[in-house]
Specification:
By secondary structure, the chain is an alpha+beta fold. The protein is about 20% helix and about 35% strand. The strands form two sheets. Strands 1, 2, 3, 6, 7, 10 and 11 form a seven-stranded antiparallel sheet that branches. The two termini are about 25 Å apart.
């Protein structure tokens, strides 16, 4: 935590424990990465994976966003997990239960084909554990065209809301249902590629996939 990542709005929801922060990052597949390029703010969605004290993203080496971030401009990476709709007795106090993380810093390129391949291995295994050993690894051309960037978790914090709605005292007597509608990501039945050859079935890594790591 730093002065910049200290939660100021609803400070009781701030979480600064690295174990809790890591758990949120490890569950979230998608991050949003914010930066300013030529005076214009941008926020882009991207796949992310955490390894130790680093968060990794990747993209095309030709991408304007990747090129700008490679130069070391300030960046902000965020993830959010939505856990439930919080329905109050008044419209004003409706909310959501969530877990979120903010990371501030700058991106550094991961150099060398072996290091980039190791990062891409982590991305693939984060999506579906066991998948890397089932598929063709990246070619030298693919590695050359891919840029992998890292952000250190030196300046980060989490914000979490849990529990039921909090209504004004006078509203608790209203004849209105209030509570939480839980939300969760679930895996559906795998849908085969129309070009898949006959007789190829999804592996246990695919059929057993769960949205929660581990």
């Amino acid at each position: 935590m730093s002065a910049r990542t200290k939660v100021k709005r609803a400070p009781a929801r701030g979480v600064y424990d690295r174990e809790a922060i890591d758990a949120i990052l490890d569950e979230a597949l998608i991050a949003h990465l914010g930066f300013v390029d030529g005076g214009q703010p941008y926020v882009i969605p991207t796949l992310q994976v955490r390894i130790g004290d680093m968060v990794y993203i990747h993209g095309s080496a030709a991408s304007r966003a990747i090129r700008g971030l490679t130069s070391g401009i300030p960046a902000c990476l965020t993830v959010t997990l939505l856990d439930g709709l919080v329905l109050a007795r008044s419209a004003f106090h409706h909310s959501i239960n969530y877990r979120s993380v903010v990371v501030l810093g700058s991106c550094r390129p991961v150099e060398g084909p072996a290091q980039r391949e190791a990062a891409l291995h982590a991305f693939t295994e984060r999506m579906v554990p066991g998948r890397w050993d089932e598929v063709r690894p990246p070619s030298a051309k693919e590695l050359k065209g891919t840029r992998v960037l890292s952000m250190r978790l030196d300046e980060c914090s989490a914000k979490v809301r849990t529990g039921p709605p909090v209504d004004d005292d006078e509203d608790y007597a209203l004849p209105v249902w209030a509570g939480v509608v839980p939300l969760a990501t679930i895996a559906g039945e795998p849908l085969a590629d129309p070009k898949l050859a006959d007789g190829i079935e999804p592996s246990p890594a695919v059929t057993g996939w769960s949205p929660t790591p581990g």
